[in-house]
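Summary of Year 1 activities. Much of the first year was spent building the evaluation harness for sequence design. The harness presents a backbone, in tokenized form, and records the residue chosen at every position. We chose the following record to illustrate the format because it has been used consistently in internal testing since the harness was completed.
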């Protein structure tokens, strides 16, 4: 029996999306869906929910919950990763509250920036444990990483974990539909090309019947910028740098040095930037789970409609050899020629029986490559810190982060990193 292993299966809603999708696919019937989570209560919640769902969907998949990670992985053909190390309390709280003491504010803090750096540092050791188990008990498995910081963790699994990995994010699938809905445009029959790095990939081309749609997009966006709306940062980036970026404005506000500035507090209102957005979402999700838990876990009539998540489509394409195109995070094997080879990039990929095959993109427009490199610098130095255990590389990563460097002096950045290391305690490995 073939096996799909889900690490972090206590993410019950996400497990329903991914594994519920699997149960709807003909080629994946009969697979074992192996669940693992370090929280036995949440693991059991997901097991109960998926068991009811399996019965309602009349799926022949087998649901198995494991208390031993290595046994959950043993013999797996596919592995889905959706863990969060440290959770909201204490680690997300630390990521946001300690920098605030230095006047450094964030919105999401899960990609780069000071929050993204420390999220990487506490997650990479756990991922390397996964990699050791995978090399031992399922060395040919395809690892689907959904955990942020996407680029750093995917890079770590491939480069240092020796695991066949693709990183998957939602931002590319929804980029064009959300943009067109916001601008009152119809995306039927639209063709487009997106590439860059995770959370900062670029809508490079967009046409319909051979006609370039960018002039009309920019015309409408310029009008929109005269009023307050939720996507002001991305529209500003597009109007100044020429291209629309995939990830949301609340994310991109902290990827650049232009928007969250203590010297110019009026920018927060001007660009509608939601400071501390991720902690608010965490609290809302925790409260929401309390309200929805019983209905989701114990609902014996639970149904499911296939989601936009790539996982089941990837599995199906490999099993059936019917090609499917995704946006994947992979190593830059000269796929984007003006970004570093050691970077993880987000590019179109074709999936079939041969697995995930990235597509060559070539050069990005120079200003877009330059913006990507500012974030790649921090990603690579964060990875260097994790791999070498050298504290100096944590400082380097933070000093080169665009938002952090724009707000703090070198001495403040070093002191902030030291405070964050101390506050995290045993959630981090020891750095020398």
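For this record, the design step produced the sequence shown next.
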């Amino acid at each position: 029996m073939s096996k799909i292993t889900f690490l972090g299966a206590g993410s019950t809603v996400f497990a329903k999306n991914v594994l519920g999708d699997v149960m709807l696919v003909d080629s994946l019937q009969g697979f074992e869906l192996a669940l693992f989570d370090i929280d036995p209560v949440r693991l059991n919640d997901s097991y109960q929910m998926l068991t009811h769902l399996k019965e309602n969907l009349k799926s022949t998949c087998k649901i198995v919950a494991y208390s031993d990670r290595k046994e959950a992985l043993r013999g797996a053909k596919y592995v889905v990763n959706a863990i969060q190390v440290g959770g909201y309390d204490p680690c997300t709280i630390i990521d946001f509250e300690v920098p605030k003491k230095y006047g450094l504010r964030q919105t999401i803090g899960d990609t780069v920036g000071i929050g993204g750096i420390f999220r990487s540092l506490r997650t990479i050791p756990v991922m390397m444990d996964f990699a050791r188990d995978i090399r031992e008990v399922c060395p040919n498995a395809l690892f689907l990483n959904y955990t942020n910081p996407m680029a750093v963790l995917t890079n770590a699994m491939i480069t240092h974990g020796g695991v066949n990995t693709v990183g998957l994010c939602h931002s590319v699938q929804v980029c064009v539909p959300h943009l067109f809905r916001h601008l009152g445009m119809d995306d039927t029959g639209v063709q487009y090309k997106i590439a860059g790095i995770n959370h900062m990939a670029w809508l490079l081309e967009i046409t319909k019947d051979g006609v370039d749609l960018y002039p009309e997009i920019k015309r409408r966006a310029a009008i929109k910028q005269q009023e307050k709306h939720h996507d002001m940062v991305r529209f500003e980036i597009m109007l100044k740098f020429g291209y629309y970026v995939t990830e949301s404005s609340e994310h991109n506000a902290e990827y650049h040095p232009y928007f969250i500035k203590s010297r110019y507090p009026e920018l927060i209102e001007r660009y509608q930037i939601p400071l501390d957005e991720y902690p608010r979402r965490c609290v809302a999700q925790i409260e929401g789970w309390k309200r929805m838990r019983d209905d989701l876990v114990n609902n014996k009539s639970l149904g499911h409609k296939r989601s936009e998540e790539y996982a089941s489509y990837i599995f199906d394409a490999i099993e059936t050899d019917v090609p499917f195109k995704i946006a994947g995070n992979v190593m830059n094997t000269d796929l984007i020629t003006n970004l570093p080879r050691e970077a993880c990039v987000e590019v179109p990929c074709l999936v079939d029986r041969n697995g995930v095959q990235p597509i060559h993109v070539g050069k990005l427009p120079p200003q877009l490559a330059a913006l990507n490199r500012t974030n790649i610098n921090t990603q690579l130095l964060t990875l260097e810190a994790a791999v070498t255990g050298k504290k100096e590389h944590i400082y380097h990563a933070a000093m080169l982060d665009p938002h952090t460097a724009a707000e703090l002096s070198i001495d403040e950045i070093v002191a902030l990193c030291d405070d964050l290391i101390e506050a995290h305690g045993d959630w981090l490995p020891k750095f020398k």
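Residues 377 and 432 are 21 Å apart (CA to CA). Quantitative recovery figures across the full test set are reported in Table 2.
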